């Protein structure tokens, strides 16, 4: 059974994408090589990460961090798992500022973990990325995009293209100089050219989406 390393060779990814896609390659040259994600090397706990993703949804970073801190104090642990979350009831979670829907999501995550339904890091290393998505999206409050972010920024899978992400779609629109953002289906088809390094392409597309109009014009001139 093949094992998937956390992270990939960004130099190989840069060279591959530069050769495969002239338009994207021009942007990549302008922006320069992007370094490897430092979180690929850091310890990672999938259940804790999913719990924190739930708590951070639809909140500013500061507000979410405050709520997480309250929950950690209430459970007496910085580790959010079924055993530690089980130390407090729903009313106590609500008192920490956790909404009703997020409370239900945390309880569902904890219940699934207790039943062995959430793969740990060792098990994930043997799973295809689509298998990881299939295992995690049934959790209440966890969508495909959340799992894709985990795959890209924590597990370091090289070939993830989050086609529903507005920033990625906006970046692709700029690369191809389109009047409108590509649909997720169109972006998926466009992204076939970027495999097996669609993660690295996505990192560039986010940066391209945020690029200033003046800088974008300079890149467009270099393509003409």
From TrEMBL:
Species of the source: Pseudoxanthomonas kaohsiungensis
Q: Which reaction does it catalyse?
A: Hydrolysis of alkylated DNA, releasing 3-methyladenine, 3-methylguanine, 7-methylguanine and 7-methyladenine
Q: What is its EC number?
A: 3.2.2.21
Indicate whether Magnesium appears among the record's keywords: no
Q: Which UniProt keywords apply?
A: DNA damage, DNA repair
Residues forming the HhH-GPD domain are 55-210
Q: Does the keyword Iron-sulfur apply?
A: no
Name the source's superkingdom. Bacteria
Listed SUPFAM superfamilies = DNA-glycosylase
What protein name is recorded for this chain? DNA-3-methyladenine glycosylase II
Cross-referenced InterPro entries: Alkylbase_DNA_Glycosylase/TA, DNA_glycosylase, HhH-GPD_domain
- Pfam families, sorted: HhH-GPD
């Amino acid at each position: 059974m093949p094992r998937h390393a956390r992270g990939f060779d960004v130099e190989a990814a840069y060279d591959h994408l530069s050769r495969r896609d002239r338009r994207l390659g021009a942007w990549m040259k302008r922006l320069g090589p992007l370094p490897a994600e430092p979180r690929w090397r850091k310890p990672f706990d999938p259940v804790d990460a999913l719990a924190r993703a739930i708590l951070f949804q639809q909140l500013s970073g500061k507000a979410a961090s405050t709520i997480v801190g309250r929950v950690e104090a209430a459970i007496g642990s910085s580790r959010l798992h079924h055993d530690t979350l089980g130390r407090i009831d729903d009313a106590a979670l609500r008192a920490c500022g956790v909404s009703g829907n997020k409370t239900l999501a945390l309880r569902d995550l904890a219940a699934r973990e207790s039943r062995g339904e959430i793969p740990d890091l060792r098990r994930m290393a043997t799973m295809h990325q689509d298998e990881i998505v299939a295992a995690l999206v049934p959790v209440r409050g966890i969508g495909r995009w959340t799992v894709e972010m985990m795959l890209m920024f924590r597990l370091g899978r090289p070939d993830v293209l989050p086609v529903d992400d507005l920033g990625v779609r906006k970046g692709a629109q700029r690369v191809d100089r389109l009047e409108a953002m590509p649909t997720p289906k169109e972006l998926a088809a466009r992204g076939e050219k970027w495999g097996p390094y669609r993660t690295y392409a996505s990192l560039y597309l986010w940066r391209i989406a945020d690029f200033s109009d003046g800088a974008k014009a300079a890149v467009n001139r270099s393509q003409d």
